[in-house]
Amino acid sequence: MLRIQKLTKRFGDKTAVDTATLDIDKPCMIGIIGRSGAGKSTLLRMINRLGDASEGQILFEGRDVTRLKGREKRAWQSDCAMIFQQFNLVPRMDVVSNVLHGTLNRRSALATMFNLYPMEDIHRAIDILDRLGIAEHAAKRAEALSGGQQQRVAIARALMQDPKIILADEPIASLDPMNAQTVMEALRRIHEEDGRTVIANLHTLDTARRYCDRVVGMRDGRIVFDGLPEQLTTGVAREIYGAGADFSEAATSTEIETLTRTEGPIREAEAAAL
Ligand SMILES: Nc1ncnc2c1ncn2[C@@H]1O[C@H](COP(=O)(O)OP(=O)(O)OP(=O)(O)O)[C@@H](O)[C@H]1O
């Protein structure tokens, strides 16, 4: 389905992503972890073509998307919708209009300028908001919503594109634990119910373990781990993050676990081992 082959990105002397290779043969939910500067955002941005690769290939269903231009490139960007840590909504615009912005790629400039949306799209936007539990806020300005609600609006906007892949760059990094849980559950449901692939950069191991089928670890631009959540042991985590004295698993926690407590003793033991 999606095959990333020896993908490299250089910024001057700096190699941000170094010959990254990743094969995704069926829809799944992947968490990418690694310390700040490991290359996680750069990798996602290359997949979406927000940034061009220096070398390597991205093949989607056999087609090289690194070479697409113009309309075809925009179509690919619709197929792999991106959501960001800071939501990137238009704060003063109402929620449903923000969601309808997800259709921009396939609308005329004139329709966009005058905010003309087909009724069918408006209904679909409201259905998606309803699915994400925020339809009651459809008429409010985006800025009036909590962070977690705003991120769900951003997910709704992404779903308007009917993407095959959702790329989420630190989707919960700005959220409190309760909102983080709601957003991660929404992404998980979208994967399970719709069969969409979700690739999320996550700064917390516990989130990756809890919600993802597969975890990819990056260090200094390279993929140094690619496996199942249960293979992500403390030793492996230490390698991914570097064995520096500044690393502790507790510091990578969103504390989502405090909401359920089930993993408490395991995590405490892990933290102690570090
Ligand atoms: N536009 C750019 N110009 C120059 N260097 C860049 C640029 N974007 C990223 N880098 C560098 O590439 C490396 C990887 O950055 P990237 O943002 O992909 O890491 P990350 O793992 O996503 O980190 P974080 O978790 O802090 O977002 C870093 O050293 C960063 O400084």
Automatic annotation (TrEMBL):
One Pfam family matching this protein: ABC_tran
Keyword match Transport: yes
Range of residues in the leader sequence: none
Gene3D superfamilies linked: P-loop containing nucleotide triphosphate hydrolases
Heme among keywords: no
GO MF annotation list: ABC-type phosphonate transporter activity; ATP binding; ATP hydrolysis activity
Superkingdom per UniProt: Bacteria
Domain ABC transporter, chain residue ranges per copy: 2-245
Assigned GO CC terms: membrane
SMART domains: AAA
InterPro entries tied to this protein: AAA+_ATPase (IPR003593), ABC_transporter-like_ATP-bd (IPR003439), ABC_transporter-like_CS (IPR017871), ABC_transpr_PhnC (IPR012693), MetN_ABC_transporter-like (IPR050086), P-loop_NTPase (IPR027417)
Keywords: ATP-binding, Cell inner membrane, Cell membrane, Membrane, Nucleotide-binding, Phosphonate transport, Translocase, Transport
PANTHER family (alphabetical): AMINO ACID IMPORT ATP-BINDING PROTEIN, PHOSPHONATES IMPORT ATP-BINDING PROTEIN PHNC
Record-given protein name: Phosphonate ABC transporter ATP-binding protein
Organism: Phaeobacter gallaeciensis
Name of the coding gene: phnC
